[in-house]
């Protein structure tokens, strides 16, 4: 038996937008992220808007490309992870770098899957089948969350993320 392992392969600088064309912005003061109305002209480097999507090779075949996300804010690097809090899985950002090699399960890996085009995707959390990155309204923006879908082929616009 071979355990799951991930080896960092490459990364790309990207912007993540939801179905409403809002841009994902990470706020280090709250260690979370949300989708906000930001125009292309308002995007600034190292302000939590420009993410890196890290691709990993895996020893186990999977449905979707294993990826992790990181972002730089004020010369500090943060990586996206998922943690349980009060019985609910939440998306967090922690200071540090994504690892080059991961042996076993990891709370930073998501499986990138096509949503309905080559630029729109959904990202399934690697540790819980059927849990996807999504957004929900919270105050003036839409907070990045993990959302359980009842069926894998369910079309849910809140899980659609454009790169």
Structure characterization notes:
- With 163 residues, the protein is mainly β.
- The protein has one domain: Trefoil (Acidic Fibroblast Growth Factor, subunit A) (Trefoil), CATH 2.80.10.
- It has strands at 5-14, 23-27, 32-36, 47-58, 65-73, 76-85, 88-95, 101-103, 110-114, 120-125, 131-138, 141-148, 161-162.
- The strands form two sheets. Strands 1, 4, 5, 6, 7, 8, 9, 10 and 13 form a nine-stranded antiparallel sheet that branches.
- A hairpin with a 2-residue loop joins strand 11 and strand 12.
- The model has no long low-confidence stretch (mean pLDDT 89).
- This is Interleukin-18.
What's the CATH C level?
Mainly Beta
Largest sheet: 9 strands, antiparallel
Distance between the termini: 36 Å
CA-based gyration radius = 15 Å
How many DSSP helices?
A: 0
How many runs of DSSP E, i.e. beta strands? 13
Strand portion: over 45%
Sequence of secondary-structure elements: EEEEEEEEEEEEE
The helix/strand class is: mainly beta
Low-confidence stretches: none
Average pLDDT confidence is 89
Subcellular location: Cytoplasm; Secreted
Organism: Turnix velox (Little buttonquail)
Keywords: Cytokine, Cytoplasm, Secreted
GO biological process, one term: inflammatory response
């Amino acid at each position: 038996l071979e355990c799951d392992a991930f080896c960092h392969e490459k990364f790309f600088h990207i912007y993540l937008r939801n179905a409403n064309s809002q841009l994902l912005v990470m706020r280090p003061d709250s260690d979370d992220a949300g989708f906000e109305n930001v125009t292309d002209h308002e995007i600034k480097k190292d302000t939590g808007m420009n993410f890196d999507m890290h691709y990993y090779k895996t020893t186990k075949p999977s449905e979707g490309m294993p990826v992790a996300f990181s972002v730089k804010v004020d010369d500090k690097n943060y990586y996206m992870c998922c943690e349980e809090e009060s019985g609910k899985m939440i998306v967090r950002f922690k200071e540090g770098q994504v690892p080059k090699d991961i042996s076993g399960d990891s709370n930073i890996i998501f499986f990138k899957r096509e949503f309905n085009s080559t630029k729109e995707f959904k990202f399934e959390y690697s540790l819980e089948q059927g849990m996807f990155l999504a957004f929900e309204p919270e105050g003036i923006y839409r907070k990045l969350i993990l959302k359980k879908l009842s069926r894998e082929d369910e079309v849910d616009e809140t899980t659609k993320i454009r790169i």
